[in-house]
Task: inverse folding
């Protein structure tokens, strides 16, 4: 999911985010963009800057793009914990 463009619509975003979590019960969320205050869960977090710093390699005449390594973040009621 992406938080790019949330801006002043934080409460509306969080309503949708919490509804998504309730319906899908995801174990892990792939997140692109800044973490919005109030989000809870387990994330593979890609900063927006990481999307512009891709490594492109050639493999069997095909180009593959890799983003920088994401951060594994768990956010719960007790705070933020970084695993790697």
Result:
């Amino acid at each position: 999911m992406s938080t790019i463009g949330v801006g002043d619509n934080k409460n509306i975003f969080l309503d949708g985010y919490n509804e998504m979590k309730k319906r899908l019960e995801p174990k892990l969320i792939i997140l692109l963009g800044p973490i919005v205050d109030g989000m809870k869960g387990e994330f593979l977090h890609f900063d927006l800057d990481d999307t512009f710093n891709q490594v492109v390699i050639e493999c069997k005449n095909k180009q593959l793009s890799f983003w920088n390594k994401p951060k594994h973040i768990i956010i719960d009621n007790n705070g933020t914990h970084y695993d790697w």
In short: The chain has a mean pLDDT of 82. Strands lie at 29-32, 41-46, 55-59, 62-66, 71-76, 79-82.
